[in-house]
Amino acid sequence: MADFTKFLTTAPVAFILFSSFVFALFIEINRFFPDILTF
Amino acid sequence: MRTFLSLLLALCIALGLAQSVQAEPLIGLKPCSEVPAFQALMNERLSSLEEKILNASPAMAPVYQQKLAQTSKRFERYSKLLCGEEGLPHLVTDGRLNHAGEFLIPGLLFLYIAGWLGWAGRSYLIAVRDEDSPEMKESLIDVPLALRCFLTALAWPAAAFKEIASGEIREPEAAVPISPR
To answer: Where are the transmembrane segments (chain A)?
Structure first.
């Protein structure tokens, strides 16, 4: 388990996890607030 | 003292510059709801969707129905913006406050988020710099430390101002390596 968490924190894996979260967040924002042009 | 005087000069110039004319007709834009081309575009889009709904199979009708709702909502929202003669909304980006939501606020938000990420990375690098193997901490991320850096970096404008004011952000001239010449 310790090895697995260590694997998860290697920079490429951590980057993929983090960016998946961010991109999913953007997709969801665009689903619930489509066509945002202004605040 | 020299920095202070130049800042003062910059401030005087900024305040002395003539305010840009606020009247909107002068930039050649009208509210979209008054521009015929915008109305035509809206009617064209909406009627083509309505036509699709009439001809659609029962399975596809709700999809077009939803699309119609979204499209009419979009045109309703954009009709409050300013349009050019061609009927497309223009965003006013010169910083006038009654159009702050179009560029000023998103722009500042962008700078804030970019600065947040940069400051978080910087503080992480500074935090691991004095440990045994800083390179290792760059390839094997210390997640609790990184999360802490992200959280504290939320206040980066204040932190940056403090570091600039105290001169902490600058390296002494002697500490900057130069290539042999």
So the answer is: 7-27
Chosen for mutation from B83, B140, B145, B149 (greatest number of chain A CBs closer than 10 Å) is: B140
The Cα–Cα gap between B80 and B31 comes to 6
The residue of chain A with its CA nearest to that of B76 is A35
Q: Is A10 on the interface with B (CB under 8 A)?
A: yes
Between CA A12 and CA B165 the distance in angstroms is 36
**A37 and B CB contact within 8 Å:** yes
**pLDDT (tens digit per residue) in B65-119:** 999 999 999 999 999 899 989 999 999 888 888 889 899 999 999 999 999 999 9
d(CA B5, CA B126): 33
Q: How far apart are CA B159 and CA B154, in angstroms?
A: 9
In this predicted complex, what is the ipTM? 0.84
Q: Considering the entire predicted model, what is its pTM?
A: 0.76
- Give B6→chain A minimum CA distance, Å: 35
The model's pLDDT over A7-22, given as tens digits with 9 standing for 90+, comes to 999 999 999 999 999 9
